[in-house]
Amino acid sequence: MSHTIEIEHLSFAYPDGHQALKDITLHVGHGEKVALVGPNGAGKSTLLLHLNGILTGQGRVRVCGLELSKETLPRVRALVGLVFQLPDDQLFSPTVFDDVAFGPIYQGLSVAEVHQRVAEALQAVHMSEAAQRVSHHLSVGQKKRIAIATVLSMRPQILALDEPSSGLDPRARRDLIQLLSELPQTMLVSTHDMLMVRELFPRMVIMDQGQVVADGATQELLKDAALLEAHGLEPPP
Questions:
Q1: How many CA atoms lie within 13 A of 119 on its CB side?
Q2: What Cα–Cα distance (Å) separates residue 225 from each residue in 195, 215, 220?
Q3: Cβ count near 153 (within 10 Å)
Q4: How far apart are the first and last CA of the chain?
Q5: What is the C-alpha to C-alpha distance for residues 1 and 216, in angstroms, rounded to an integer?
Q6: Distance of alpha carbon 207 from its chain centroid, rounded?
Q7: 56-94 pLDDT, tens per residue?
Q8: Mind giving me the DSSP string for 151-208?
Q9: Tell me, what DSSP letter sits at residue 179?
Q10: How far apart are alpha carbons 228 and 37 in whole angstroms?
Q11: Rounded to a whole number, what is the largest CA-CA distance in the chain?
Q12: Exposure of 22 by Cβ count < 10 A (0-12 exposed, 13-18 middle, 19+ buried)?
């Protein structure tokens, strides 16, 4: 299997000295859907922010064969769709259309191509009818879908999502899981939602205190109650 994400010996400390990542090595194959789980402060979000160069630590990050560097950063950011935990961090334009069009416009695409990209992205998240709505008038579940559409309009190879199901009611959560199951991109998803992990992600990576402590088949790791308990996790009911 060719690797879409290659992280080798990655370490990162914040300016206050907190060591958030300690010698992380992680490979994700093309088309894989991988869950990142672990307690708060484990380094999951910090790791995601390294995939498109928002943070830069010591070590090596390769995305779709491209070494992450200042020179490759624009290309890598087009390949990695990063969706933040809070959709309001991602939505800031007057309408849904404008939010979803922002990336393609920034890429310098033609007006016709921008409209096509927006239409495709909104269709993929089942929100085509919302194009002219104001993003901040939408429900949390709808906002999360639009946040995903803002990165899908860039046609990424990889989706990196931070706590996508947090704050959702049961129906919106179910809709989101269905949506993520339909999308073909390679996914690396940080989550505390162990039910979603069991249902959607064949592979699970457990992080704690900035390190990968387990990496394997989700069904096998979920059977290891002692491992889960040691790292602040509970198996789904």
A1: 6
A2: 15, 15, 10
A3: 27
A4: 33
A5: 16
A6: 16
A7: 999 999 999 999 998 999 889 889 999 998 888 888 888
A8: HHTT--SEEEEESTTTT--HHHHHHHHHHHHH--SEEEEE-S-HHHHHHH-SEEEEEE
A9: H
A10: 10
A11: 55
A12: middle
Residue type, 25: T
Identity (one letter) of the amino acid at 123? Q
State the residue for tokens 């940080």.
190
Strand (E) or helix (H) holding 48: helix 44-50
Q: Which two tokens stand for residue 213?
A: 């402590």
Position 112 scores a pLDDT of: 97
- Can you tell me which residue has the tokens 């064949």? 202
Q: Which of 61, 9, 27 is nearest to 215 (CA)?
A: 27
Confidence (pLDDT) at 1: 53
Task: Collapse the DSSP code of 137 into the 3-class scheme (helix H, G, I; strand E, B; otherwise coil) and give the result.
Answer: helix
The span from the CA of 154 to the CA of 227, in Å, is 38
Contact between 190 and 162 under an 8 Å Cβ cutoff? The reply is yes
Distance CA 49, CA 160 (A): 9
Which amino acid makes up residue 176?
A: L
**Alpha helices for the chain (secondary structure H):** 44-50, 73-79, 96-106, 111-124, 140-152, 170-182, 194-200, 218-222, 225-230
Query: Are the C-beta atoms of 79 and 64 separated by less than 8 Å?
Result: yes
d(CA 66, CA 47): 17
**Structure tokens belonging to residue 49:** 């922010």
Do the beta carbons of residue 97 and residue 131 sit within 8 Å? Answer: yes
pLDDT < 70 stretches in the chain: 1-2
Angle between helices 140-152 and 96-106 (to 10 degrees): 20
Q: Is the pTM of this model over 0.85?
A: yes
Contact between 61 and 51 (Cβ < 8 Å)? yes
**Amino acid identity at 189:** V
